[in-house]
Amino acid sequence: MSRIALAVHGGAGTISRELLTPSREKAYKEALELALRRGHAVLERGGAALDAVEVAVRALEDTPLFNAGRGSVFNADGQHEMDASLMNGSDLRAGAVAGVQNVKNPIGLARRVMDHSSHVLISGMGAFEFAHQQKVELEDDEYFFDEFRYQQWKEVVGSDKVQLDHSDKEKKFGTVGAVALDAAGHLAAATSTGGMTNKKWQRVGDSPIIGAGTYANDESCAVSCTGHGESFIRAVAAHDVHALMAYKGLSLEEAVRVVVHEKLPPLDGDGGLIAIDRAGNIVLDFNCPGMYRGHVGSDAVYHTAIFR
Q1: Kind of pairing, strands 214-216 and 221-227?
Q2: 14 close to 166: Cβ distance less than 8 angstroms
Q3: Of 14, 21, 63, 175, which one is the catalytic site residue?
């Protein structure tokens, strides 16, 4: 029986210490720990890594603190378009959705795509139709309204400026994710996001793209990314961690270091990722000032952090 392990993230970037009041920092860490507790509970009772990452990401989607699910940013039309994906390391099955609206938990819809369709990625109105067919929980626009996000959007609405989840002093890549190893030795990864404020043309980032923002393979590792999506797509960042381990024999720590600190920066790839290997080693690394993150192992001790 292998050890169990789980890690989560709530985005990375230039997170301003001045703007992060003690009460706000406490709220972020409590939200990360809640996600860890819910996912870890699944693993402790012998549940699958895939179920654990879905449960953990659902918890992060349910809080307006993170740019996913309820806390998703506004697009150019003042609406919310959400992306999510997850992948199972034992058989490489995956499910993803892009540009979905009014779905309470996009990660749950991605799971339905994996389990109840012959596809990997569906988008837009098609994904919404599928959500209706699958009877997933929907919410009206009011549920997704957050004053802080709305003011972010008002600063740039009507312009061609696409901004990340940030205020003037903060540049944060708002994505949430989880990676897990279960008692049977299987790995899984999940990622969810609301994308970029004021995004146009149904822009899609790395989060719903298998191999870019999410990847899991029992032979190596499980990875969930957060960063400048276009760069992570071009770097095929999540799969590259696996490839460096599988083809070059690198350790998880070294593979992550190469991707985060060598491969991504030349592509303006600010951000980070969380990863777990089949031995239960956890790496949470980033090339920017901070990343909302947490992890827990078989010892059931919860660790959360924001800055280095």
Answers
A1: antiparallel
A2: yes
A3: 175
Angle at the Cα of 99 from the Cα atoms of 27 and 96, rounded to 5 degrees: 85
What are the two backbone dihedrals, phi and then psi, of residue 245, each rounded to the nearest 5 degrees?
-75, -45
Tokens of 274: 């969380």
User: Do strands 121-123 and 94-100 pair parallel, antiparallel, or not at all (unpaired)?
Assistant: parallel
The residues, ordered by sequence, that sit 6+ positions from 222 with a Cβ below 8 Å of its Cβ are 49, 53, 87, 89, 179, 180, 181, 187, 188, 189, 215, 216, 275, 276
| Contact indicator for 36, 6 with CB cutoff of 8 Å | yes
Distance from CA of residue 111 to its chain's centroid? 14
Cβ contacts of residue 243 below 8 Å, gap of 6+?
none
Architecture of domain 5-307: 4-Layer Sandwich (3.60)
To the query of whether residue 175 is one of the catalytic residues in this protein, the response is yes
Own/partner pairs, 150-153, CB within 8 angstroms, 24+ separation: 150/74, 152/73, 152/74, 152/197, 153/73, 153/74, 153/78, 153/197, 153/198
Instruction: Give pLDDT tens digits along the chain (308 positions).
Output: 479 999 999 999 877 787 788 999 999 999 999 999 999 999 999 999 999 999 999 999 999 999 999 988 888 887 889 999 999 999 999 999 999 999 999 999 999 999 999 999 999 999 999 999 999 999 998 888 877 776 777 777 766 665 555 444 556 668 999 999 999 999 999 999 998 877 788 899 999 999 999 999 999 999 999 999 999 999 999 999 999 999 999 999 999 999 999 999 999 999 999 999 999 999 999 999 999 999 999 999 999 999 98
Handedness of CA 255, 106, 97, 99 (dihedral sign): negative
Closest CA to 238 of 198, 187, 197: 187
Task: Report the chain's C-alpha Rg in angstroms.
Answer: 17
